[in-house]
Design goal:
The protein has about 200 residues and is α/β, with parallel strands linked by helices. About 35% of the residues lie in helices and about 20% in strands. The protein has a single domain, classed as UDP-n-acetylglucosamine1-carboxyvinyl-transferase, Chain (Alpha-beta prism), CATH 3.65.10. The chain is built from seven helices and nine strands. Strand 8, helix 5 and strand 9 form a beta-alpha-beta unit. The relative contact order is 0.14.
């Protein structure tokens, strides 16, 4: 007989950390592997977050306002392409101008037009995304075009002033188990409809 534990999902952990960072909170994630999160944690620290790690735990405390940063996606163990859209949403209200360079996948910026509907100031030039932080973004009706872009819109909806309605959530539900319940346990007001 053999036993095996499935490794923790570093992208889900990173997404939760970014949501807490964007909303100015603090959180302790348990049953994660901090070694798998190194590039994500470094960028969150660059944003001004205070990070503490233990063997299977990550603690994050967000600053009042996130710093602008630069990100270049790279193959593992570099910064994961699956996290760039989530960081893109988080950086819409950071200080100054942030830059994301997508080196892995084309069409990874599908979420940008949806963030613009919320008041985000973003331009794309080839594989470079330029995000000018704004004081506020606003709730809107938006559509998830893919899994990680959908997670970005959830984050943006939690940061935005007013109500955000995200359609086409099948992508989000496919990639994040019980995300609504996890976020509700952190204080989010989130509700699934017409599932």
């Amino acid at each position: 007989m053999c036993g095996y534990n499935i490794m923790p999902d570093r992208i889900e952990a990173g997404t939760l950390l970014c949501i807490v960072a964007a909303t100015g909170g603090k959180v302790t994630l348990k049953k994660v592997n901090p070694e798998h999160l190194v590039p994500i944690l470094h960028k969150l620290e660059d944003c001004g977050c205070i990070i503490q790690t233990e063997r299977d735990t990550v603690k994050l405390e967000a600053p009042k306002k996130l710093n602008n940063i630069e990100i270049k996606t790279m193959p593992y163990p570099g910064f994961p392409t699956d996290m760039q859209s989530v960081f893109g949403g988080m950086l819409t209200t950071a200080k100054g101008t942030s830059i994301i360079v997508e080196n892995i996948f084309e069409n990874r910026y599908k979420y940008i037009n949806e963030l613009r509907k919320m008041g985000a100031k973003i331009t794309v030039e080839g594989k470079i995304c330029i995000i000018k932080g704004t004081r506020k973004i606003y709730g809107a009706k938006v559509k998830a075009e893919d899994l990680r872009g959908g997670a970005c819109l959830v984050l943006a909806g939690l940061v935005a002033k007013g109500k955000t309605e995200i359609s086409n959530i099948k992508y989000i539900l496919r990639g994040y188990e019980d995300l609504d319940k996890k976020l509700s346990s952190l204080g989010a007001k989130i509700k699934l409809e017409n599932i």
